[in-house]
Amino acid sequence: MIPILGTLFWGKAETYAMLGRYTERFKNSKMVKSIFEENGFDIQYLSYFYGCASGIKGRKI
To answer: What superkingdom does the record give (predicted)?
Structure first.
């Protein structure tokens, strides 16, 4: 669904093509946050749109 919406609204389906695989592998932003922290990164979890979307940002310590 996401690649189709990407094509309709932004014209770049390939940008979103791997999203399903990433979601299967890493589950969610909180899981990815812990993976980065275990590997020496200082990570901040971010919540957008009242919890409808999330992300992380960080830096290597």
So the answer is: Bacteria
